Amino acid sequence: MEGFVDRSDELDQLTGCYDGDSADFVVIYGRRRLGKSELVRQSVADRDNAVYYQAVESTGQNQLEQFVDAATAQFPSLQNVRRDWEALLEALGNEDAIVVIDEFPFLIEEDESLPSRIQRVWDQKLQDTEMTLVLVGSSISVMEDKVLSGSAPLYGRRTATINLQPLTAGDARDFYPEYDAETAITAWAIYGETPHYLQTIDPKRSLSENVQASILSERGLLYSEPEFLLRMELQQPNTYFSILRALAHGRRTPSEIAGMAGMESQSLSSYLQKLRRIRLVERHIPVTESPTASKRGRYRIAAPLFRFWFRFVYGNQDQLRLLGEDAYEEIVAPEIADHVSPLFERLCQRALPQLVDRRLTDIGQWWFKQHELDVLGLSPDGLVAGECKFTAEPVSEGVLSDLERTTAEVRWSEEPTDSKPLYALFSRSGYTEDLKRVADARDDVWLYNLADVLSALDGRSTANN
After folding, report:
1. Which residues, 6+ apart, have CB-to-CB distance to 126 below 8 Å?
2. Burial of 378: CB neighbours in 10 Å, binned 0-12, 13-18, 19+
């Protein structure tokens, strides 16, 4: 599917900067493949006063020459301007131009003085014009250190920041609108919410055919994608690969991850910190605890495609090659429900505010010792506890009983003393007749199917108990 999905807020923000009567300095950054380049290209597509330059890994001189080519194509008078970043930007400022420099970190790699030079020309010349300068970067660490941090030369100059995020699950579904609810959730658990990955899906083909063609086949567009991106971001990535493989196979605590990765747990912290900084790994804690004080953090891969790749592709390339077109059925199909299950929990957490009639102040997981809740919503009116089952069997009354017992173990300092928990069950395969009768007789038990979850994520909740 071609298209530019749901970046209207960001486009409106950029348009407001372009059409304003004062100078604007915009910084756009975020993980690779989220559509930053497409966003800025769309934003300047119909503007004859815009210069768009995408930096490449090259010498500083070549980069400058390529920028001159892009600038003079729009403003031929710049042919007479000295080949120098400050002189060129000053001349473009005099034209009240829109200047987009994409992949700005590549320029900094060749010339570390460039942020200071841009700061100087901005302070002395550009801030008094109607120019809009847009710096775009995928290397989050470089953008944070060299552009956004308090010690960076450009700190305090920007007038707008766009920290581009993945699409929502509802927007991702626009790439496979004909898939039924189960297939759509499975597709999300494989491709995630990254536009570049979603655009490889042919909605006329089955999900298994798409995965076979785009991820499992040597010729697939995503067959080497995670490895390629990691090698761009990380030096000596093999240790990171081992950590991500452990996470993809369900290891969550530092000791579990280190054990499977074959490393000392003391040395794991710096690797996890780097993976978190480039937004491939998330640390999460029990929802009732303080993010700054809790020591019971768990880790997980943030991007579903990376989780899928490190589970089914990494280390299996020879087997995938031998199996050919049968790879999905032989390797993925027997384990796909287990892969989807923890990601389904994340979707249920996101859907919960649309499904229950309580104002929720926070939503997440909860665990303590042997007790664990897939979904826990905190509310001034009390707890909303949920259990998610992406299994082939209908959910029985026993699951509700277990959920009630586990919820009774939750300790939340702000829980109202007279509150009554609500119980939400989410099931791939429906519910037994006994459980349906219990839910019909009670006003604190809610049963949801996959379509209910997707409707809530689309903002069109129609589910009830």
Report:
1. 23, 89, 90, 93, 133
2. buried
CA-nearest of 450, 457, 465, 462 to 173 is 457
Residue 174 has pLDDT above 80, yes or no: yes
How deeply is 70 buried, as exposed, middle or buried, from its count of CB atoms within 10 A (0-12, 13-18, 19+)?
middle
Instruction: Quote the CA–CA distance of 72 and 70 in Å, as a whole number.
Output: 6
Residue type, 111: D
pLDDT grade, residue 462 (50/70/90)?
Answer: very low
Neighbours of 162 (CB within 10 A): 20
Reported as a single tens digit per residue, the pLDDT across 340-385 is: 999 999 999 999 999 998 999 999 999 999 999 999 999 999 999 9
Q: For residue 283, what are the β-bridge partners?
A: 299
CA 464 → CA 345, 393, 421, 453, distances in Å? 19, 21, 17, 11
Q: What are the structural domains, with CATH classification, of the chain?
A: 8-163 (3.40.50.300), 170-335 (1.10.10.10), 340-457 (3.40.1350.10)
Contact 272, 243 (CB under 8 A): yes
Residues 197, 221: Cα–Cα separation, whole Å: 9
Distance CA 380, CA 357 (A): 12
Q: How much is the pLDDT for 69?
A: 96
CA atoms of 421 and 409, how far apart (whole Å): 12
Instruction: Tell me how far apart the alpha carbons of residues 365 and 148 are, in angstroms, rounded to a whole number.
Output: 32
Query: In angstroms, what is the C-alpha Rg of the chain?
Result: 25
**Using CB atoms within 10 A of its CB, is residue 372 exposed (0-12), middle (13-18) or buried (19+)?**
middle
Identify the CA nearest to 6 among candidates 457, 462, 464, 463: 457
Q: For 27-40, what is each residue's pLDDT tens digit?
A: 999 988 999 999 99
SS3 (DSSP) at 27: strand
pTM confidence score = 0.90
Phi-psi region at 461: left, alpha or beta (left = phi > 0; alpha = psi -120 to 50):
beta
**pLDDT tier, 2 (very low <50, low <70, confident <90, very high otherwise):** very low
- The residues, ordered by sequence, that sit 6+ positions from 291 with a Cβ below 8 Å of its Cβ are 285
